[in-house]
Amino acid sequence: MQMRTIMTTLSKNKIVLGLSGGVDSTTAALLLKDQGFEVIGFYFDVMGDNADGKRAAEELAEKMEIPLHIMDVSEEFSKSVIDNFCSQYACGRTPNPCVVCNPAIKFKKLLEIADRENAYYIATGHYVGVTKDDTSGIYYIQKGSSEKKDQSYMLYRLGQQVLSRLILPLADMKDKDTVRRLARENDMPNAQAADSQEICFIDEEKEDYVSFMEARGFACSKGHFVDAEGKILGEHQGINRYTVGQRKGLGIALGKPVFVTKIDKEKNQVVLGDNADLFHTEVVSAENFFTETGCGEIPERLLEKQGITAKIRYAAKPAPAVLHKTCDGRVVTVFEQPQRAATPGQSIVFYDGDRVVGGGFIEPY
């Protein structure tokens, strides 16, 4: 009841936008201003020392004549995102830090600033939309208009508190060229800036993720490459250096192409096999989150429902599948066609039409 009272006092003309300094969030700000919103920028300093990033955001905010808040979120980010990233790799999994950061840091902080600034809405420059079901009143992440740029996969863990207040101005953008053109037309200095790097907290020009992990005490010892029967094939350099589906950079020659098919943390082994060994019709996921329940409990209507699709990585296309639940709360996704290299630690995301209905973290076979 208290929350409802607070919400009704917030201004629906104000909106807090995550302003990274990139062209996407810049164009989102321009579009929101054109729509008549009073835009307030918010820059997250995830490492606590990004002077260049802060300066770029400040220059853009000044040019667009919008106020900007800068927040050092490095302590929370380190505990919630970086530690998870390092520990997952050290366990032979392949994490996606954005999936963790979005609910735990980025959108959580956007709501905090919005409440503080008396703003009802929040926004980001993601290429994705939000839709409300007229019957249930539930809000869903909706695929963006551009299949190539769609970022719905990254946002599947957002709950109703976020989705009900979220506006995504780039939902209808067909491509990045259109976004850059709008930025150029408004004389934005970052119109042609390069896209942000894949892992925002690692300077890829100075170090890779392995050295980043090792500097934080997450080194992995050498072990053995083995085949499916456990026969030793050679020595690996630490399980954190490999991912399921990998072929290049293994450092072993066996006279034919081989791929990482499994990583066994307990035995400190990397299993190698043929490409065919990577294809499976069943994928198990844990720590699931479903939009309709706001937790890991799968809605009954989705169980064994026809028309559901799922994707096992960001760049994959959603494929027809049927969802089942296990007695321990995990979800077993059965695909019509075998999927290649479902990678532990990555997310599997579920769609009902163009709506995201949930997802979870892929478990080892």
What does this molecule look like?
This is tRNA-specific 2-thiouridylase MnmA. ATP binds at residues 18-25, 44, 125. GO terms for molecular function: ATP binding; tRNA binding; tRNA-uridine 2-sulfurtransferase activity. It comes from Anaerotruncus colihominis. InterPro entries: MnmA-like, MnmA-like_C, MnmA-like_central, MnmA-like_central_sf, Rossmann-like_a/b/a_fold. The chain has 365 residues and is an alpha/beta fold. It folds into 3 domains: 11-186, 3-Layer(aba) Sandwich (Rossmann fold); 220-273, Adenine nucleotide alpha hydrolases-like domains (SH3 type barrels, Roll), CATH 2.30.30.280; 278-362, Elongation Factor Tu (Ef-tu), domain 3. Helices cover 25% and strands 29% of the residues. The protein has 8 helices and 17 strands. The protein has helices at 2-9, 23-34, 51-64, 74-90, 97-116, 160-163, 176-185, 209-215; strands at 11-18, 38-45, 68-72, 119-123, 128-132, 139-143, 166-167, 223-226, 232-236, 259-264, 269-273, 279-290, 308-311, 319-325, 331-340, 347-352, 355-362. Strands 12-15-14-13-16-17 form a 6-stranded antiparallel β-barrel. It has a 5-stranded parallel β-sheet with strand order 3-2-1-4-7, with helices on both faces. Strands 9-8-11-10 form a 4-stranded mixed β-sheet, with no helix packed on it. The protein is globular, with a radius of gyration of 22 Å. The N and C termini lie far apart (45 Å). Residues 1-6 have low confidence and may be disordered.
